[in-house]
Amino acid sequence: MLFIEELNLYANAKIAKWLATGFVIFFIFYHGFLHIYDGGDSCQRLLSDGRFQGSLVWQPYGCMIHSYSKIDTRRCMRYVAFLKESNTIAFVGDSRIRQLYHSFVDQK
Question: Keyword Transmembrane helix, does the record have it (predicted)?
Fold first, then answer.
């Protein structure tokens, strides 16, 4: 309890801004190093590091690609309806997102 009270004495907006700036600078250098190390080709890492999920589906590490069946989608929507909460689903993007929207709407 004493640690939290002491932390509150030193925590303020100025320190938070300095910490955030430090994190941004760290990640700039980190990604710059990765860019130099990989030769600027981030696709190489996506295509070489990963695993097969089965049925000849490649899952790159660091990339979250999910495939949902109609049963999974219905179960999710019914669960949200059971909790009596409303969800807003926004599809923002290009023609690929439009294809995802049409696939979502077609899952009746």
Answer: yes
